[in-house]
Design a protein that fits this description.
Elements (H helix, E strand, L loop, with lengths): L20 H25 L25 H10 L6 H7 L18 H9 L5 H7 L4 H9 L3 E8 L3 E8 L19 H6 L4 H4 L8 H11 L3 E4 L7 H37 L22 E4 L3 H16 L4 H7 E2 L1 H8 L14 H6 L9 E6 L4 E3 L8 E4 L1 H8 L14 E4 L2 H7 L1 H8 L19 H4 L8 E5 L5 H10 L6 E4 L16 E6 L8 H13 L11 E5 L2 H14 L3 E4 L5 H12 L5 E5 H7 L8 E4 L7 H8 L17 E6 L4 H8 L1 H9 L4 E5 L3
Parallel strand pairs: 3-10, 3-11, 4-8, 4-9, 5-7, 9-10, 12-17, 13-15, 13-16, 14-15, 16-17
Antiparallel strand pairs: 1-2, 2-11, 6-7, 6-8, 12-18
Helix pairs in contact: 1-2, 9-10, 10-11, 11-13, 15-17, 25-26
Family: Belongs to the UTP25 family.
GO molecular function: rRNA binding; U3 snoRNA binding
Keywords: Nucleus
Amino acid sequence: MKQKHSKNRAKPYKKTTPDRRNERFSKNYSYIQRSKQMEESHRRERIPTVPKQEFEPVAELLPEIPDDVDEAGFYEQLVTGYNHIPTSQILSSTTEDPSVPVPKKIKPKKEKRSEKINADLEIYNSFTKRFDFELSTDNINDLIAGKDVKSIKDNWSALGNVKFEIPRLSEDFKEPDCSEPKDIVSSSDLQKLEVKLSICGNAKLPLTALQSQLFYVANNYQDIYYPHRSHANAEDIRYVYCLHALNHMLKVRSLILRNNEKVSALAKTQKLSPNEISIPESFRDQGLKRMKVVFIVPFRESALKIVNIIGDLLFGSQEENARKTSIANYERFLGDYSGNTIYFPKTNPKPVDYEQTFSGNTDDNFKLGIRFTKKTMALFSDMNASDILIASPLGLRMLVTDKDNDFDFLNSIELLIVDQAELFLAQNWENLLHSLDHLHLQPQKLPDTNCQRVRTWCLSGASSFYRQTLFFSSQELPEFRAVLNSKCNNYQGKARISNLIEHGDIRNVLTPIQQVFRRISCSNVESTFDDRFQYFVKHIMPQFSKPGFSHCMLYVPSYFDYVRIRNHFKTEMVSFVQINEYTKKEKISRARDIFFHSGASVLLYSERAHFFRRTRIKGIRNLIMYQPPNFPHFYSEMINLMLESNQNPRDGFGEEMSVNILYTKYDLLSLSNIVGSENAVKLTSGKKDSYLFSTKT
């Protein structure tokens, strides 16, 4: 007897197979072919002789396929963004076909009023103009080579000397206005600059002259190099770049959401899903990845301040409980990014700038993803789903070098902000350079973005030329200029702020002593490392063997030079003790005691050790700076340690003291921070090899 089948009989389990890469390509290939068929039907039915006929938006034709290229492979590469085709071929393939007639759009009468308002604000529409501009292959080659750049110099009241470097990309390319702007005092001033209304109501107004001028340049999407950051203006600068970053991010999100609605409406009229229709070229509004803004800051305390400023701009001033509801994971964020303040001793206190730098959480290994929704802001979001990334150079490098995860989210960055760059020299400058080298690289995995919504310059690998960089530091150094010159290719140019230094840090020296600057001849930049060492061995080290020579501190800014000198001292059997950033507290105390009581003639001291600890070394009678300090205020700080109150009265040296600074002509910027710009030029280009500065009365 056969058993009747029950309706509730359990069905066999079928494991759903994930979409394979080839299947995803086939789906994209199918709707691309369907879009070609639709275009062909539109072309046949189009009657160009009909006067004053209103047309619906029609998608532009896809690139024509060369005869020697496989059709399936061509569209597969276009969809995924893997550019095995040369950049020049892709750029040329995206140009419009002049043989295809394009119908003129007749604007409805109802939109005349809105069009008039938009026309009044068109001069401030820097966002739309920037990302709709298409760079040609010749433009990209000129940007890389630095050809045809116009320099405009001006003097602004707050910024000082501003130098604009603007590439001339075409004959009809309009150069931005470089005259000094008016101060931003009201929300209407922000609205004229196309700041989102939701931000204008919460912004702290009026902005200072410095804030207004920085925001004006940033809003024009030009790179900014500002090497005059200080503890006094730090918060003003941070507020400006947070305002600009949030405004940019909200514009990006609102454009995408607005186009999503248009695509959905277009899909309904054609009775197809949004992924199957042919989308007009004007709807290209995305990159290959979602993330658009990256902040690189040294400590968690800096990230905490950035998040709080963004929260204030979005939701207004709130209490902690209200902030927890408007910002997801805010309580966890406070636990991870606040507290852990370094103990500052009350007796023998640290310098004021040390306490200001290291206040708050000074952990330098972090990365924080931020994601915006319609009503909230979510912290600790996944990197591939984040709009903003706040990270330290070390945290960003660990993301890049993580073998388990890719770093494709760095492909479509449109705004990069680097703040407190001088602190990265004390941490590890190589981490920053390594991270910057991994921006805008070809994705390792297939992007999930609809290729019809991706901007053409992003598909062609030209996204690095559409990235704006804001770079802030407390002084000007060659390393900072190198980053701006070699890793920042913004097609809208850059603004360098460079003001002459009148006096320098030498005026803060209190010890009455003569300071001798010794110039080392170098043929090129690459040879400075060896030339400086050879000069030190031949001309400075013989003094160590002289009778009575003791209590000499050798101050070394670079850790690589420090290791080289230490190894040479061990080979030559020099009596020395050492203190670097890795030395433990017990060994530091022992080295200081030995040096003070003449147990060792030389103290080898690294600049990074002084940066992180600010140890007061006593007993210094001979100071040798292997290179001018990267932090100019360390110059006077080290010489002031040689005051009579810090000397050992039993060492038997009386008042014999000396200060020697070794430098090359390539140390011009470091010398300017110490002796002033005018004196630095004399030191580097003068006929003499040694110069004497005296603070004796």
